[in-house]
Amino acid sequence: MVRVGLVMLQGARHAHISALNEASGDCGIPIEIIEIRKLEQLHSSDPDALIIPGGESTTMRKTGKDDASSLMPGMFEWIRSNRSKPILGTCAGAILLADPQDGAPPLINAVLNRNAYGSQYESFQGAVHSSLLDREFPGIFIRAPRFVSADDDICATHGDEVVGVKNGMIIGLTFHPELSPDRGFHKWIIENAKV
Ligand code: GLN
After folding, report:
1. Per the confidence metrics, is the pTM higher than 0.70?
2. What is the pLDDT, as a whole number, of residue 12?
3. For labelling, which of 53, 71, 132, 165 has a CA lying 20 to 30 Å from the CA of 159?
4. What structural domains and CATH numbers belong to the chain?
5. Residue nearest to atom 4 of ligand 1 (CA)
6. Cis peptide before 53 (omega within 30 of 0)
7. Residue 66: how many CB atoms within 10 A of its CB?
8. Which is the closest atom of ligand 1 to the Cα of 114?
9. Following DSSP, what letter does each residue of 60-120 receive, concatenated?
10. Is 176 labeled as catalytic in the residue annotation?
11. In what side-by-side order are the strands of the sheet with 49-52?
12. Which of 125, 101, 99, 129 is nearest to 113 (CA)?
């Protein structure tokens, strides 16, 4: 049984739940999904992996810093002290990992430019090549950020552009793998969570 924490601040959380359940079935590894709304839930459950969905990073910073939640910055500290656990930040989740704003080192070593493709109208789908999965992956980019620079391993590209980085077990993607039918990244998270 792999226990996957899912940060419930905002974004396509329920799509991640479906994706995780399907990925679990595909790879034959049972999972328990732990919905994380408060820091104490992260500490008491101490999951084997963590997913930070996309959404609006400004909103997530506000809701996550709320006294009732206090998820941030504690969540970043938890990630720093759990280096062997797979962590997936999608879109706004990647923005938070790159720029935790807690005075400590970032979780991925990259600079992202928010909303860099333009307005919602410029959201798009496109084939991504993932070296992590060793194949093409259908990328769904929604008001996506762009990597301005990335000092970590590149794990996904769209044409010449970097759209995914990997720092140890921490992955930041500018697209939304939970919204495409391919469960590759969710399977990777489950299969790489050591229990
Ligand atoms: N535009 C969002 C931000 O800057 C990210 C978009 C997303 O997560 N789909 O936070």
Report:
1. yes
2. 87
3. 53
4. 2-194 (3.40.50.880)
5. 114
6. no
7. 12
8. 4
9. HHHHHHSTTT-HHHHHHHHHHT-TTS-EEEETHHHHHHH---SSS--SS-EEEETTTT-SG
10. yes
11. 31-36, 2-7, 49-52, 87-90, 170-173, 161-167, 153-158, 124-130, 135-141
12. 99
Checking if the pLDDT of 68 tops 90, the result is no
- What six digits make up the tokens of 91? 């879109």
Q: Give every CB contact of residue 142 below 8 A, 6+ residues apart in sequence.
A: 54, 91, 120, 123, 176, 179
The residue from 16, 155, 158, 178 that is catalytic is: 178
**Token couple for 111:** 């600079």
Which of the listed residues 52, 101, 143 should we mutate to test ligand 1's pocket, taking the one with most ligand atoms within 8 A of CB? 143
Binding pocket residue ranges, ligand 1, CB within 6 Å: 54-57, 91-92, 95, 114-115, 142-143, 145
Structure confidence by residue, pLDDT tens digits, 78-103: 999 999 999 999 999 999 999 999 99
Distances (CA, A) of 154 to 3, 66, 70, 149, 171: 27, 33, 31, 11, 10
91 is a catalytic site residue: yes
Distance 56 CA to ligand 1 centre (A): 5
Q: Which amino acid type is present at position 113?
A: N
Cα(59) to centroid of ligand 1, in Å? 10
How does pLDDT run across 125-156, given as a tens digit for each residue? 999 999 999 999 999 999 999 999 999 999 99
